Amino acid sequence: MQLDELKAIAEKHRSSRKKIIVRTCMSAGCMSSQADIIKKNLEAEAKAQGLEADVEVRRVGCMGFCGQGPLVGWDNSGEHGLWEFVKPEDAASIIAALKGGECKVQRGDPKHPFFAKQMHIVRANGGIIDPERIEDYIAIGGYTALHHSLTELQPAQVVEEVTKSGLRGRGGAGFPSGLKWGTVAKSPGAKKYVVCNGDEGDPGAFMDRSVLESDPHLVLEGMAIAAYAVGADQGYLYVRAEYPLAISRLQIAIKQAKQLGLLGAGIFESPFNFNVDIRIGAGAFVCGEETALMASVEGKRGTPRPRPPFPAESGLWGCPTLINNVETFANISAIINKGGEWYAGIGTEKSKGTKVFALTGKIKNNGLIEVPMGIPLRQIIMEMGGGAPDGRSIKSVQTGGPSGGCIPADYLDTPVDYESLTKLGSIMGSGGMVVMDDTTNMVEIAKFYMEFCMEESCGKCIPCRAGTVQMFNLLEKITQRKATARDLAKLEELCDMVKNTSLCGLGQTAPNPVISTLKFFRKEYAELLQPDPFGP
Amino acid sequence: MAVKTLTIDGRPITAEEGATVLQAATEAGIKIPTLCHLEGVYDVGACRLCIVEITGTTKLLPACTTKVSEGMEVQTQTERLRNYRRMILELLFAERNHVCAVCVSNGHCELQTLAYSQGMEHIRYDYTFPKWNVDTTHRLFGMDHNRCVLCTRCVRACWHIEGAGTKNIAGRGATSKIITDLNQPWGDSDSCTECGKCVMACPTGALFQKGSTVGEMVHDRDKLEFIVTAREKKQWVAAD
User: Fold this and answer.
1) Closest residue of chain B to A453, computed from CA coordinates
2) Domain range holding B70?
3) Per the structure, how many domains does chain B have?
4) Which residue of chain B has the CA closest to A459?
5) Domain check: are B161 and B143 in the same one?
6) B162 in the same domain as B95
7) Is the pLDDT of residue B233 over 90?
8) pLDDT of A178-204, one tens digit each?
9) Is A202 on the interface with B (CB under 8 A)?
């Protein structure tokens, strides 16, 4: 494969495109509401109404507005539109509407703040290209960033570009990616690995699933560029087994990329080799922790180990390993194509670029959004999300899943960046954003997350294994109105201990939902306490 | 071999490069409490009892897996650390059914000794009283899961000293359990060589020789160290 061949594929694909494109979302959300039948019906209708020559019914990935799904979009000579809540029997009227016929299906508004306030880098192709056709990805400029890196940049220059971009890890902790890449690149060792963490497990989070289902090649290209930069020739994509559609699309993508020589040996006829294998998780949340994930890839029991040594020095099978999240890799090709400086121009001083959030919970507009860093929470919740449904008011926003915290409505003007969220006792996290309205009981929320951590604790270290059990029991006692102020003090003491002594991130952050709800909603706890029969 | 100088609890100490803080402290006669650490097998840093404070890091690090470095300042006995250690021990006692009075290892138990030495006077947390079984299917040994602290010393001894790979761990969180082979009764295990190293490694009365009654089970842990020293350093030094 050479650049002109790549361009030829893109050109051929572009020129064979039909006039009207009807895009059917075939991501997991819409698929669960019969999107596959909708697509089949649309194809049959296009044929029946004699529009076969003009209309292409395309399978696409996530369009973001998941709460209004199944979604069907259309492009006709520069104009776009969207239908919402499509049912299989709507196919005839949708095809008829393309010719100016009447259509009763609900129309989406592309100027709605939900779409208008977004900025797409990671999700640029989501809902536009067919994730199962590499030609679609190539036609919009796919794999040119890899070509540019391999032919015109030294590995150190690639690292330099990522450093310049200011990109920070999108898995949650926000470690500077350029620094991590540089460490792996400089670590001595003939064999190195690149690992993509797709073990997304936070309750309410589905950003990475959407990226993998909608644009698998974007992640593969990012991984290949990373491998070139750090000197690796083998990659592993760790995806949880609960994402079967993502896994099958990745398998297709890897196969297609290999056939075209975009993965494998001698990529773009350079001496660079890179193979990617998929590793499927087995249902353990803790395997999203990098050391546990690597143990799992090695075929061992997925439990974390103490760091240091960090994976960058000693990772898979003791070799230097670069491990990044799906969304981090998905940012890479844009950074290479448009330059680190362009990327650094987006966002705030310390948090660059965009972030994908899964907006869920008690909110009118559910779905996936990608926004520039630094956008106030209020804009996301009130304008894009449309606030709470049924005339209720917003009480709190939970970010960062079981490792994060609850931000009360008073702080909605906080900009969304790593530091501001940490200051409030929450974290950026991987991108889950669960909105709660005024009917929500915050103690119950804390208990829910503690139960999650208790069940997902691997059991290796005592503070997390036994501490989460005791914290959950105390929370249960509080919600059952059987606890006293003494129990609450015990809970707070345990939070501090588990946070400071646990082995891995799961245990160290497990108390966060309790700590943050105690910080902002202490009254709700106090109301449930009983007088202590033994005195204060 | 390069040498590093550091201070532990204010005392200047030298240690070989690559040594852990625990090794350096032990060599200097400074006692750091441990439970999952066992001489002769690799460390996992799981029990968190040996956590220490190191100047310059906000995180508490386990002494057994943290390597010494030049100029390191280590604190092993601050009030905060002692408090955390007591809480960890209390959590362990509340987690399973540790009843010293009827235990085969009463008087020879590391968990019991730790509780005394760390000043654990009472248990603040509610006992969970889980129902665990006792596996007495093996000809020579028994396993009482009620007394297990999940330190995995038996697993590591089985895999890395004996090389049999019989013992393993299944499940997760509080329901984690030491198993033999593919969760079979110990007596049905094909891979068990009946070497007894797991029993020697056990800190509590969870693994015992059959026939021992209250207070009779003394685990001969020095034997494991002896075997490893003999194998790795070719030194046949009998432990005292």
Assistant:
1) B173
2) 3-77
3) 2
4) B173
5) yes
6) yes
7) no
8) 999 999 999 999 999 999 999 999 999
9) no
